[in-house]
Amino acid sequence: MFVGYFTERPYQDKSSGYFGATGRDLTDLSMSNRDYDPKLGADLYNRYLDEKVFAEEMGFDGLMLNEHHSTPFCMGGVMNVEASILARITQRAKIVLLGNVLPIWEDPLWLAEELAEIDMISRGRLVTGWVRGTGRESVAHNAPPPFNWERFQEAHDLVVKAWSQPGPFRWESDHYQFRYVNPWSRPYQNPHPPIWIPGVMSRNTVKWAAEHRYPYVMLATELGPTVESFKYYEECAREAGYEAGTQHRGYLWKVHVDETEELAEATARKYIQGPSNPFLEGNQGNVRSFIQNLPGLTSRTNLLPTSQVASAARARGKTDQLKDAPKSDMRGTFEEQSDKMGIVYGTPKTVIPKIRHVLETLRPGSIIFWDGDGAMDHDDAMRSLRLFGSDVLPAVREMGKELELDSPFDVDDEIPAGYSPEVVAAAKAAEARAAAQADAAGA
Amino acid sequence: MGINPSETQVEVAGLSVRYFRGGSGPVALKLHHSTGNPGWMASDDALAEKFDLIVPDLPGYNQSDRPVWARSVRDIAILMKRFIEELQLKNVTLIGCGLGGWVAAELATMYDTELSNLVVSGAPGIKPNEGFIEDQIMMDWEEYVQLSFSSAENYLETYGEDAAEVYKELWDYSREMTARLTWKPWMYNKSLEPLLKLVNIPSLIIWGAEDRITPIICGEQYRDALPNSSLQVIENAGHCVEHEETGKFVELVSEFIGR
Question: What residue ranges define each of the domains in chain A, with the CATH number in brackets?
């Protein structure tokens, strides 16, 4: 079992009026950065890095970062910078990026170089992950949404080839053209860092991830639909000629541990306060759904059960339908989210059985606890991290063994989770050639 | 009152293109806005009293096949040239509204063999020397169509209190094709304006004085760029001037053709 730690790194500014459930109106992509205070930004970036270092000390296997743009609920617009720093100041934990928004890169070769540097500086601790991004990202970096999926796949193919095959070579695809692909830095891991794909709603992406044998990490989705989505991954894997296992399944959700039940609840309520995600119920934020789901960005019909109804209805502005639609992406009041185990909180004693329920239900080989978010401050995050380290992680590891929840790092697959068969075959062929050459030279 | 147009499909470059046709007189080919072809409207009835009016769904919109390779409005103009040839139309008056006006202008720069007149109304395609062309991506599609009228009353008169679901779907899905053609830069092609001086046929530029989508400076730039052109501004009308001031619109076009 692989256990990671995640915070979305919200921009917490009590003086802005955006902080908390009351105050100024929060509407996505309409909040001016004139309210941004770089001094506060400096404190927050450093705080979140410190917490990641402490998470490693407490025994977490992975430190996860994510990326959003032009929004206060995630400061990771350039998460590769944070990842680079973690690469140098941490020692053991994997640096899990879930993920870079591939289609918004005009020059994915640059991304290939950045990630290779992070992998080298960390001496092979990078887990790279790629997403298609929401409409917010397409708008913020002006990438054409109708070609989002094509650009995602092409950028992926280019980066993987740049990492795994010797240059120079020429690259000509529909959306990307390069006359000289030969990045001097190559990743530390051979043939490249493992690739994980996080997601919530696209069937296309699940199928594609399964075909490439990339673990699929469901992000804070409801348990029932998540099980269904994992089943769909398994079906796609079978069609691709292999049996998917726990190493191909990841799950991220909100878990906060505290010293008393009362403190745990009071602190966990902060998940849906502040700019952590100002668009959750309780925070009075407005998502502009026509921007979130731009035309052509995501198929309106090819959605996972996690968001089939709600997303389509939101995108179409059919608010009447929305009233009856399941809030499958764990949105809802604190009580609703807690009832559905989208938010788990308590002392170690009460949290551990709830985590077990999630593990038994989903059987993921990799899990990531989402904590220290919303209106939670540094002290809130540190109390939880300490208890994770002393009580929760040891228990979760035992559960992982008992339930046989193997992560990609626990098993010795011929084609490891995180690598496509073609790339593995090419790498083996290259090794064989090198060995034969060495033999010939020796003889 | 009311003409019953025919509805036909024709194959153009391997793509099925649907069009309505009705009325009699000189041939007029009317190209729709970026929000798709809303069907045979009252303004089409009025035009069909003077013209043999043809109203196609532009390739990629409504029921016309999508040219998946198309990346520019000029690509659509090339297909519309083939459409004219396929239907063997002669002495065509091209009437383009909004995005359709841009298509018409692109077409006129490269082909005037069978064109007799060009009418563009509220057309983007030219980068305004001041201001921006309104960005429908940053608003709800219904809000955008409302903004295309000079007043809420005029919008309601055309589409009603609660626009039919079929229109809303059309506006939603049309945005995808529009984004495929002109996401960046949004709604103009820097190489159009210099080429407009090659257009030899007479051109009429119609603008709603209250156009909140394409600034009127674009109309002035069209007038200055097109050698044989005039600009007519219709008061109390917005971007959808053909719906809002149908009578004046048709009168201007008729006068222009009959001059």
Answer: 2-442 (3.20.20.30)
